[in-house]
Queue: 3 jobs
Job 1
Amino acid sequence: MRIAVSGASGLIGSALVESLGKDGHETVRLVRRAPASAEEVRWDPVRGTVDVQGLAGCEAVVHLAGAGIADRRWTDARKRELRDSRVLGTSAIARAAAAMDTPPRVLLCGSAIGYYGDTGDSWVDEDSPLGDGFLAELCRDWEAAADPAREAGIRTVHARTGLVVSGEGGAWGRLFPIFKAGLGGRIGSGRQFWSFIALHDELAAMRHILTTDSLSGPVNLTAPDPLTNREVTAAMGRVLHRPTVAAVPAFALRAALGEFAGDVLGSQRVRPKRLLESGFAYAFPEIDQAIGAALRTR
């Protein structure tokens, strides 16, 4: 299968390209500079342009590009950048796919469980309503930007991803050095639910989506059983054999992160209903397994 991938330099995108390549699939990477090889296709998410000819023959497009949510403090300018990088980029990809003489069979777009907002102890799944806050509104607009592809009859899926357990990058990659140093601990009250997924299962779920025609619309990419931050903290200490007595009080997190602290302290108890109903099998569904798998790939 020939598959185009945007965001191929990121944690998930780079791992997905490597995984697909090992299994003999042909991948083309969307880049914002002049292509250096036939495996690259130029696009400009801000201007909304994509080299459609470079996508010819692609049966699937995986769109993962977007500015890092937790990379910087959320100023008004940063929030515009976060929104534009996702909404404008998704719109460009969707319109390009829809304009192709032979469109791809499936467009898999990144999204996030931030769609649900702070859900406390309540379970949510893909049928649950939109939550409150900046991230929820961002996810809503991000997903709606794919409408041109949907309207063109392309099977369009939104991968609402949770916290990816990986030692290679992302939020969890920043946690490992802290916990290894024995400085890890709960965040805030520790009662907030963290809906996690092992990087291995994230990639496997995406590949499952690409070949499962019954899946469309939002699909939660999380492990079946979310845990509280306190439980995750205990698991990190258990697997790494380190104490976890330190704690980050809520006021300190708000001082450091500003508005984004509300999402870190928020609770999201997400059920991956559609993934489970489609027959997807997790390799590392338990937190200790997911942490162990991340350590082995560091």
Job 2
Amino acid sequence: MTATAEEISPHRGRRWIEHWEPENEEFWNSTGKKIANRNLWFSILTEHIGFSIWSLWSVMVLFMGPKYGLSVGDKFLLTSTPTLVGSCVRIPYTFAVAKFGGRNWTIISALLLLIPTIGAAIVLQPGTPLGVFLAIAVLGGVGGGNFASSMTNINAFFPEKAKGMALGLNAGGGNLGVAVIQLVGLLVIATAGTTAPRIILFVYIPLIIVAATCSALFMDNLVSVKNDKKGMREVMKDAHSWVMAFLYIGTFGSFIGYSFAFGLVLQNQFGRTPLQAAYVTFLGPLLGSFSRPIGGWLADRFGGGKVTFVNFVGMAVMTVLLIIASEAKSLALFTAAFIVLFVLTGIGNGSTYKMIPAIFRTKAKAAIAAGADEATELLKARKLSGALIGLAGAIGALGGLLINLAFRQSFISTKSGVSAFIGFLVFYGVCFAVTWAVYLRKSTAPVSEKGLALAGAQV
């Protein structure tokens, strides 16, 4: 049973749930929690595989030796391309949840992953032109869209008190897909060598089919999730939206950008072989994925603004260590600092995403206190939160593109990543300054002002 009879929409069918009140304690404890958790776990499965396919070329480049005729710049271009496409498709993927239903779109988005996976299996061989590889990498960008639709869908299922952990688990489980495909790549390189990259693709093709099937069997659509373009327009007019999108460039953009680039940096800056690079590249995305729910939990406990601020300070410190390690040619220090940096990107991902629903929840409470209808304001807050999750996710993913392009230019110009790291350090400094100025600095400004102060809101 996916829902009780009174919850099923009489107009759309069994997989559409009409009645959904996660903020109602009685409803949540008796019915909602079980359904929401079931949708969460199967959403994680599909999003996880989506991330794996999105980051496919960060693994494939480890197999592409001299016979492929690609330069360092070409390889960074290959890892950059899916990042750009993934960020662009996140907005339409966000709208797709409301238009088609969360369950329905999860099925479709899973099946779309077959196109770049099968395409890579066909073209992956020496002699293939760079343009063909780039075309397949473009198609792989659809895997990045799964994150936006999955987060928007899960955001609608859970009450405010549980969003931090739910969104953290959903995003962390998805992010884990980056580490898992790199582990699969390591296993293939260690056992079959660098001449058998298609084994990875033959592993993922059936997994994609399993994910689509499970989504069809075990997930649900919510009638209450509407295709609210007005909500997106309203979100885009809110200054907080752009602040959060900027901060998310620093957290998620760093996570995905470093995930795609880590192996190439180790190979080109420290002369690591593909196997030597593969032995450590998975650790960063793995720990960064596991730390994301911790970021959501810390934000629930201490406030997202405080956690995000401290996190950016930590990211700046680790970047300084990366610069020192690069200049000293210390592989041990470089690897350790990079892995800690990955952990911090995960914590920051969780804390920034927790801030999004908290911001609109705070505004809803202010409107309710002024006499507005409670149910209407809470529903509006959930809709705007979902819209901003899509917007911030799209813009944040562009950070991954910028990181790979920065590394590309740095290695082309200086044969080192130091110039790129200096740029990242400056950016993280701006991020923690913005977090303090907007969300931590004491202010007496009311929530309703167009300024950025939240009158002490625990975001």
Job 3
Amino acid sequence: MTPSRLTALRRGRLTFHVHDTGPEDGEPVVLLHGFPEDSSSWDRVVPCLHDAGLRTVALDQRGYSPGARPRERAAYRLDFLVADVLAVLDATGPAHVVGHDWGGNVAWALAARAPERVRSLTVLSTPHPRALSRALVRSDQALRSLYVGFFQLPALPEAVLSRSMPSLLERSGLPADDAARYTDRMREPGALRAALNWYRALPLARRGVGPVRVPTTYVWGSHDAALGRRAAEDTEANVLAPYRFVELDAGHWLPETVPVEVADAVTGPPGAQRTTDAGSGT
């Protein structure tokens, strides 16, 4: 019996867009995007995963799906974001989980809290939260993360980003067509506020993210302006399972700029080794 395709996910009053493609009998790979991306950030990666025989399930996460855009910041606590993905896994069964940026943070928490639901974990750019917290006081990470404090302010971040988002994204290394597409999505009613609420909910966290006990690959771009080397290298200490660290000659936007390398990281077996690849990003 082949699984039915997911086109939408309903959780109470919220309805999420889901893009379920590839071989119907392939092992499922759940793809979690970051800020201010959406599920289309995986468009260049997905064909490579399909070629490897994998089924891909890309979710427009909370705040990014028009039907799942609550206004209050408390609705974006990490517990709720993880629960959204668990609802996807209820439909797919245990899956390989891949997350980038904020999607990576959700992926770390999911794997730590429900390891029996995760066949393997691949996280792009975002270090394990414990490694990031340590780096804030042991490296230049606090300077790299100043924007997170700015995003806590009411209204002002929306005003600034509504005018400058395309240029800011392009200067950070995101291709112009992707920057334009994400900006258009953020212009939908309530979208930018919802996306920023992921940051504003950080002070509301009720518990941290513990160590991960599933096979894990962590991929980091050495030119990432937001996330530095110290946290990237300290992430290994928070994985109590086969682990691989892949360093790419790339920036932050790995799914968009180095999709082949990302797909290779997903399909390659995690192992206790470190690899460095040339990549092709900025």
